[in-house]
């Protein structure tokens, strides 16, 4: 069931019974703190699904993530636009392509349930406050050990962590 509600000068479609999901990197606390990032930073993929699909999607994502090995992620400070906040970027975004490619295997189930296809994240990049940079400009290294799944009702402001998918050592 869908309804349309006015929002400012336009209208937006509010979809009852739909959930917005997104998968993010499980960043170590020290990396999140150093870069002043929320737990929901580093979107690998996002999708919409209907109520009642969550259990099946979680089982499939668990199967996909359990085949992935942990890997070393390196963040480099890249030249930013003068006056813009510093920007950290994943050195080798191709390391995420295998995981993302496997996540597209969810599409037949999503599309067969009249849901849009999964949207894959772009090479991961974060703009951070200048004070987060400090005097250190060296690369940041960490082992990616897991992927977090978040969920929120469509058009809701806040999301909630649903589960963590661990990667193989």
Domain module count? 1
* CATH architecture group name: Alpha-Beta Complex
Output the structural class.
Answer: alpha+beta
CATH class: Alpha Beta
What is the overall number of helices? 5
Q: Find the count of extended strands (DSSP E, 2+ residues).
A: 11
Order of helices and strands: EEEHEHEEHHEEHEEE
CATH superfamily: Cyclic phosphodiesterase
Per DSSP, what share of the residues sits in E-state strands of 2 or more residues? 35-45%
Overall shape: it is globular
- Arithmetic mean pLDDT: 85
Largest sheet strand order: 7-4-3-10-11
For the largest beta-sheet, the strand count, sense and barrel status come to:
5 strands, antiparallel
Q: How helical, in percent, are the residues?
A: 10-25%
Poorly predicted runs: 1-14
What is the CA-based Rg, rounded? Answer: 18 Å
CATH fold call: Cyclic Phosphodiesterase, Chain: A
């Amino acid at each position: 069931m869908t309804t349309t509600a006015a929002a400012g000068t336009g209208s937006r479609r509010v979809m009852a019974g739909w959930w917005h999901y997104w998968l993010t990197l499980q960043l170590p606390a020290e990396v999140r703190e150093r870069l002043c990032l929320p737990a929901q930073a580093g979107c690998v993929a996002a999708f919409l699904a209907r109520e009642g699909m969550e259990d099946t999607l979680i089982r499939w994502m668990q199967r996909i993530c359990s085949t992935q090995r942990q890997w070393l992620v390196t963040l480099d400070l890249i030249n930013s636009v003068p006056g813009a906040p510093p920007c950290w970027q994943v050195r080798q975004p191709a390391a995420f392509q295998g995981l993302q490619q496997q996540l597209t295997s969810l599409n037949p189930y999503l599309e067969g349930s009249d849901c849009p296809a999964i949207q894959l994240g772009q090479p991961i990049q974060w703009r951070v406050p200048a004070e987060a940079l400090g005097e250190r400009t060296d690369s940041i290294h960490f082992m990616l050990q897991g992927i977090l799944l978040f969920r929120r009702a469509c058009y809701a402001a806040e999301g909630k962590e649903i589960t963590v998918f661990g990667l193989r050592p």
